[in-house]
Amino acid sequence: MTDVQSGVNGVPLPDPLHAVVLELERHANAGGWDQPPALYALVDTAELLAAEPGLADQVGLSATEIEPGSITPVEQESIGDAPLDETLARIAWPESVLGCALVQEVLVLPPDAEDARPDDTDPVEWAAAHTDRREVRMVAGVLRDGTSACALRMRPHGEVESTEVIYGADLAPNLVVALRATLD
């Protein structure tokens, strides 16, 4: 459960969705790298605690301590090994779900790398073997009202821990579109 006041480096985040994306990125980072994708339903915290009063006791919250508009991410079952676009195309959230978020690790390449890929090469294998590849953890969240938020963390090289997280509404535009489609 996230409130807007937590923010980044003490600076409040502009809305509850950004706060949830931050919370999910921190949670994923605590689990380390090489994790499978994780899908979350985003629900109204007050409604969740009203429906499940035992949860409030478990996390030590009362209804008066909940910021209005707070959002809670609820992790879903594993999304499996099917291609992500196919998996997302089969998902339809109930109206009680305000939005959804996905945490996944991806490979990124320099912009000019695609031009060098041989036509007869599997793109995934080629990218995995590319010397300039970078691994990135991406968190994207969307709400039914069209709001989106994303966070990216580069996997560190060597033993240096990466603490920099990049935030923006459209850092993963194709993923944002795919997640929005699950809410239609």
- Taking pLDDT < 50 over at least 5 consecutive residues as the criterion, the unreliable ranges are 1-8
Averaged pLDDT: 84
Fraction in helix? 25-40%
Number of helices: 6
Order of helices and strands: HEHHEHEHEEEH
User: How is the largest sheet built, in terms of strand order?
Assistant: 2-1-3-4-5-6
Backbone shape: globular
Oligomeric description of these chains? single chain
Largest β sheet strand count, sense and barrel closure: 6 strands, antiparallel
- Please report the distance between the alpha carbons of the first and last residues: 25 Å
Q: By helix and strand content, what is the structural category?
A: alpha+beta
Tally of extended strands? 6
Q: Proportion of β residues? A: 15-25%
- Tally of individual domains: 1
- Using only C-alpha atoms, the radius of gyration works out to 18 Å
Describe this entry's structure for a reader.
By secondary structure, the protein is α+β, with helices and mostly antiparallel strands. It has one domain. Helix content is about 30%, strand content about 25%. The protein has a six-stranded antiparallel beta sheet with strand order 2-1-3-4-5-6. β4 and β5 (about 150-155) form a beta hairpin. α2 packs across α3 (about 55-60). It is globular. Mean pLDDT is about 85; it is low at about 1-10.
Entry summary:
The chain has helices at residues 16-30, 45-51, 53-59, 84-89, 123-129, 173-181, and strands spanning 38-44, 71-75, 99-108, 134-143, 148-154, 166-168.
